[in-house]
Design brief:
Length: 151
């Protein structure tokens, strides 16, 4: 089940981000941006959704409208839940919400050192649109154009 995050989810969200992104700290040379997020503010803004199964926290996603598209800021799955389709389900939820809100694309970025992400996003239909340094990180930007059932 995917639901809107509540304030009492903050500790699990932070723990998930720490565990999911820790493996990239050495490659990037510092903590990736998702490990530094103000999760309390994101939860209060209604931009965080969590995946739970039988009351067990599995992962989270942060997304928000940005002009004519949805910006997918972060997605993370606990390492022990990896490989079960949780990340794909969270991304599919974001895409469905994008269409529900009348937007036609999802934009996201990842760090150029996150090789797994660079491989998975194209398999999910995302197209690389740019590479640039931003906030001290070397980022790769992706876009996925969406169309509703009537298109």
């Amino acid at each position: 089940m995917i639901r809107l995050a509540r304030p009492d989810d903050e500790a699990e969200i932070r723990d998930c981000a720490e565990k999911a992104y820790a493996r990239y700290v050495a490659a990037i040379g510092r903590k990736p941006a998702p490990m530094l997020a103000d999760f309390a503010a994101e939860i209060a803004a209604g931009t965080v959704h969590v995946a739970v199964e039988g009351g067990t926290f599995l992962g989270f996603i942060i997304f928000l409208p940005d002009g004519d598209h949805m910006l997918l800021e972060s997605v993370a799955v606990l390492p022990e839940a990896a490989g079960r389709g949780v990340g794909k389900a969270l991304i599919a939820f974001c895409e469905a919400e994008t269409l529900r809100r009348g937007l036609s694309a999802v934009h996201l970025y990842t760090n150029e050192k996150m090789a797994e992400n660079l491989a998975i996003y194209p398999r999910l239909g995302y197209v690389e649109v740019a590479r640039r340094a931003e906030d001290g990180f070397k980022r790769v930007f992706f876009e996925k154009r969406l169309s509703g059932p009537s298109a």
